[in-house]
Design goal:
homodimer; 333 residues; mainly alpha; Farnesyl Diphosphate Synthase; two-stranded antiparallel sheet; 17 helices; 2 strands; 73% helix; disordered N terminus; metal-binding (chains A, B); transferase (chains A, B); Isoprenoid_synthase_dom_sf (chains A, B); Polyprenyl_synt (chains A, B)
Chain lengths: 333, 333
């Protein structure tokens, strides 16, 4: 990391470098979330879109297009598309998970109701598809509609896999690709496609987004067991209490003896949890080196993301994306 | 109606005429609702898709393409797209309305849960967009993604308008276009577009679908107050009990004196309903001729649909579509 950048986080550097484009994206989002007939739509959307998210996904599209020398205006449409798909997914996720908080504020399903979250999410999906049609690029449409299908499939898979002790690392990876990496990789890939970058660069952008998204999600799952709750905004053990089979637990179960298996079966599969169970779970995770192995996996995916960048041309944005891949795992390095 | 057809309903004539295409649509639907990773998806989808719906919407696409002399294969993709959008909408509607029955069977939200209905609905939306991209026709994408937005917007509008006594016939029409007519008109329009029909025929197909959808929904709302429950599968007064402001009630409220307004305010807006209220409501609807005026509106939209067909060429399918416009209002004629 260059000395002059040490004070700034890489996503902030990107935001600064892409400030004009990001402003266009925000303007387009505000314009397209309007509804002449149903004021409920912009109310619900604004609550989420303007809650101070980092706009990480749309920035990946803008950055990828910029890195490949794109000179047109349609990367803005695609970035807004990506943010709309993300926002729609969050609205539906919060209904499915019965969440009460998101980005430090009450969720839309709590402030309004589940109906509004479901239907406004549908509206944003439809608006996303309208936006992605506008550049008139069929390959972009193919990539983004595929991503939307993978996202939904991952979410459904998670419904059945979440509390099933048979869930292995392969299934976990499919779920993670669905819930996080598919939109990251689509975001970077369409940036390259719209810029008509050479095929190997497009492929590298896909690989970068895929690996970055997976690293991002693994870190999230790891911090749930060893994070500083004041920094993560989550309590240690939330996933355990919600009986989610994340990577650390999957690794611990793979190494479990009979007694330990019975413990995981009771606490995760049956949901019969007692006061000291979280402590015992953490003990098992440490005993089998599951947290350390998970950490190594996250670092491995981050390294893959950085390696993919080698196929892209020298460019200030390339350096920022490399630093971003370091940054997403910095909290566990 | 020709004598030889008197025994057959027009949608059955269409199904017979389009049998090969419909079989291709069904095969494509089965293929695309599969999910390698999440078996819950085809389970939930099959429950609804194979429950014996009439496939009215996909038939409209096939019929329109046929009527305009289309010789390709992509009308099958577009018809399957239309059915997927319809199915996704039904899944989400049943969650929003907390419905327990659909097509005479328990709803998916009841058999599985709301989560599955929301996420499988999202999956089908995404699959619909994948399918519609395949013909590579940008105008088709524009029409169908617009329709998806109008549908979602209409549903959100209905949330706020349903129990609001200020809802007038214009708002009602917007809601009806969203919940029903937008997909009908998109279904017919894309059939013409994919067949590269002349602009005036495409416009006429849109107008036909729009008017047919509106007539269809008005009849549905009318039958709720005067239908034969053994034929409609609904009880008389369901909409009243659910406090829905449909066209008959909107007309009665527009003609209401002060006492009557207070009655509607109490029963619909506040939801304070007593035993004899439905009877009184029916009395008011008849006193102001609201049911008869609603019936006339439905017949008017049916006539508009038939008139639009004049711009299309002589063809057996044209006659069937004309008879279909008669058929949707036959139960109130």
């Amino acid at each position: 990391m260059g000395l002059d950048r040490a004070a700034t986080k890489p996503h902030e550097q990107l935001a600064q470098h892409l400030a004009n484009d990001l402003e266009s994206v925000n303007a387009l989002i505000r314009q397209r979330m309007a509804s002449r007939h149903a004021p409920r739509i912009p109310e619900v959307t604004a609550h989420l879109v303007e809650a101070g998210g980092k706009r990480l996904r749309p920035m990946l599209t803008l950055a990828s297009a910029d890195l490949c020398g794109y000179g047109g205006a349609f990367h803005v449409h695609l970035a807004a598309t990506v943010e709309f798909i993300h926002t729609a997914t969050l609205l539906h996720d919060d209904v499915v998970d019965e969440s009460q908080q998101r980005r430090g504020r009450p969720t839309a399903n709590l402030l309004w109701d589940n109906k509004s979250s479901v239907l406004v999410g549908d509206y944003l999906f439809a608006r996303a598809f309208q936006l992605m049609v506008e550049p008139g690029n069929l390959r972009v449409l193919d990539i983004l509609s595929n991503a939307a299908a993978v996202i939904a499939e991952g979410e459904v898979l998670q419904l059945s896999a979440a509390r099933d002790l048979k869930t292995d690392e392969n299934v976990y990876l499919q779920v993670v690709r669905g819930k996080t990496a598919a939109l990251f990789s689509a975001a970077t890939e369409v940036g390259g496609v719209i810029a008509q970058a050479p095929e190997e660069q497009v492929k590298a952008l896909f690989d970068y987004g895929d690996a970055l998204g997976i690293a991002f999600q693994i870190v999230d799952d790891l911090l749930d067991y060893q994070g500083d709750s004041s920094a993560t905004g989550k309590n240690v053990g939330d996933d355990f209490r919600e009986r989610k089979l994340t990577l650390p637990v999957i690794k611990a179960i793979a190494a479990a003896d009979e007694d330990e298996r019975a413990f995981w079966k009771r606490t995760i599969e049956k949901g019969d949890q007692r006061d000291s169970d979280l402590e015992h779970a953490l003990d098992l995770l440490n005993r089998h080196g599951a947290l350390e192995a998970t950490r190594q996996d996250a670092l491995g995916w981050s390294a893959k993301a950085k390696a993919a960048m080698q196929a892209l041309p020298e460019h200030p944005v390339r350096q920022m994306l490399i630093e971003l891949a370091d940054y997403v795992v910095a909290r566990v390095s």
